[in-house]
Design goal:
This protein is mostly helical. Helices cover 80% and strands 0% of the residues. It has three helices and no strands. Helix 2 runs antiparallel to helix 3. The two termini are 38 Å apart.
């Protein structure tokens, strides 16, 4: 039997992807910490933007705080959906 024929008859190579358990726990710990840091940064961003809006309103200044708030909220959405999106893609 030729090499090409044996490759065709063997079928597709389908390896199993399994990371070691110790590596899984360490990666989950790091990603969990990163998620909490991202959430805290999002909350801080909303609070800072709200404070800047309040100070600007009191002074009578107009500024583009809504665009800043939109950017902060988009960042919050990205942080919140990063984990489930990656899990969906790689499962």
């Amino acid at each position: 039997m030729s090499l090409a024929m044996s490759i065709i008859l063997a079928g597709p190579f389908n390896p199993t992807r399994q990371a070691p358990d110790l590596l899984k726990t360490k990666i989950n710990l790091v990603l969990g910490i990163a998620g909490w840091i991202g959430t805290a940064a999002g909350v801080a961003g909303v609070l800072i933007t709200g404070a800047m809006m309040g100070i600007s309103m009191k002074r009578g200044e107009s500024s583009e705080h809504m665009s800043r708030l939109g950017m902060v909220l988009c960042g919050c959405v990205l942080v919140a959906t990063a984990g489930p999106l990656v899990e969906f893609v790689f499962q």
